[in-house]
Amino acid sequence: MAEETGGAEHPVFAYIDAVRGYAILLVITCHLTFSYPELPYPVHRLTVLGWHGVQLFFLASCVTLLLSWHGEVARRGRADIGAFFLRRVFRILPAYYLGGLFYWWLDPPAHGFDLGQFLTAYGFINLWHPLTAPTVMGQWSVIPGGWSVSVEFTFYALFPLIASLITSLRRAIVFTLAALLFAILTNRAGFVLWGGSYSMRAVEDILYFWFPNQLPVFALGTMVFFLLRPAAIIPRHLAGAIAGLALAGFFALAWAPVPQWAGEAGWPLGHAQAASLPLALFVLALSRAAPGGLFVNPLVAWVGKISFSAYLIHYAAIELLPGRFPHLFHTGAGGLAAILAYAGGWLAVTGATCLCAFCTYHAIERPMIALGRRLINARRARLAALAAEGM
Predict the structure, then answer these.
(1) Taking the chain (391 residues) in consecutive chunks of 10 residues, what is each chunk's mean pLDDT?
(2) How many separate domains does the chain show?
(3) What pLDDT shows up at residue 11?
(4) Which of 148, 220, 238, 357 is most exposed by smallest CB count within 10 Å?
(5) Taking the CB of residue 161, how many other CB atoms lie within 10 A of it?
(6) For 354, what's the count of Cα atoms within 13 Å in the CB-facing half-sphere?
(7) Alpha carbon 236 to chain centroid distance?
(8) Which of 347, 249, 354, 256 is nearest to 308 (CA)?
(9) Distance in angstroms (rounded) separating the CA atoms of residues 314 and 241
């Protein structure tokens, strides 16, 4: 969910920052909901749907990676796979690893340091078992929300193969259908494998979180990428209206009886896949929307630039503000008072998150991105020199 969060690589694709901005605002909206247990049920149903801001991140990530990959192929004749992985490492790891140390200090694990849990989280392989995910209650979550970064890194590992093979809209459609079938089959296998050993909640949650269930979302992102090219698919003058309709369809899912994961109870789509359909249309609409307009505006684009830091930080903001000062933020209010208190808490948490994220983006993310770029350039110069010597 964090690919190139620092900004789109070409001004033509600046709308990607806006997409990321909406994604992190949705995630904050969801997670803050649980600080207000008496929030009226209809409002709760809508705000908790912000959980799917992560799928919006995944769509943006896939589209941005493909834009970057195909742009490099057009400029250089081929994509540099080594540079691709170096960019990913220096873009994500420094802030993510420092975030783990910060949360170790802020909220130490109740049962002490667990080396296995630490290594699987820091190695991005924790999303393959309920104990390491962790979806089993009482286990140490090394970095809150780190599941999405682990899923993202699995996608990075496969991306060069995906980008090389998925070269047309037709192939993207086949890939999406195959990914959905893969999700259904692996989810059913996981349900059988873990159903007798762990609680139903733990099993349901890992089958939602893990990479097989999220792969169709990334695959849908490849379709979005190829649909960006025929610009007339969404007329510019209708982009805003279509974006609004896409959001209406997304929030309508709050009342749709869609199961948690693909393949559950015979449903081909789970919540992640169903939510991704209107969100994909939203991304397409924003790609045609006028910069500076209602949807692609400077404020939400600015939030998108710092969205990776904001994603890592917002959990702490919720814990340190309404979590530590429940009376100040009226977290026990009910009815209309709960809605007003939630709105005030949302402004405070979002403001504090963005302020801190702005600082960490400039202090950690940008210097590490620049360092990665310098290493890539040095590597390319060294390879060019070796090639020249061999001629």
Answers:
(1) 46 82 98 97 94 97 95 91 95 96 93 92 95 93 94 97 96 98 98 95 96 98 90 83 96 93 94 97 93 91 97 98 97 96 98 98 97 93 79 61
(2) 1
(3) 47
(4) 238
(5) 10
(6) 17
(7) 27
(8) 354
(9) 31
pLDDT of 89 reads: 95
Q: For the whole prediction, is pTM greater than 0.85?
A: yes
Residue with tokens 């969100």: 279
Asked if residue 134 has a cis previous peptide bond (ω within 30° of 0), the answer is yes
Give the CA distances from residue 261 to residues 119, 123, 173, 213, 273, in Å, rounded to whole numbers and listed in that order.
27, 25, 20, 7, 8
* Residue 5: inside a domain: no
Question: How far is it, in rounded angstroms, from Cα 160 to Cα 140?
Answer: 33
Single-letter amino acid, residue 279:
L
Q: Indicate the residue type of 256.
A: A
Contact 310, 364 (CB under 8 A): no
What does the buried/exposed string (b/e) look like for 225-235 if buried means 16 or more CB atoms within 10 Å of the residue's CB?
A: bbbbeeeeebe
| Cβ-based neighbour number of residue 270 at 10 Å | 25
- CA neighbor of 42 nearest in space, from 349, 343, 335, 278: 335
- Domain assignment present for residue 2? The answer is no
Q: Is residue 250 part of a domain?
A: yes
DSSP code for 362: I
What is the separation of C-alpha 177 from the centre of its chain, rounded to a whole number of angstroms? 21
Considering the domain boundaries, does residue 4 fall inside one? no
How far, rounded to the nearest angstrom, does the alpha carbon of residue 171 sit from its chain's CA centroid? 24
Q: Is 205 left (phi over 0), alpha (psi -120 to 50) or beta?
A: alpha
Range of the domain at 295: 11-390
Distances (CA, A) of 350 to 32, 230, 284, 382: 10, 36, 26, 45
Residue 216 vs residues 45, 279, 284: alpha-carbon distances, Å: 24, 13, 17
Q: What is the pLDDT of residue 230?
A: 63
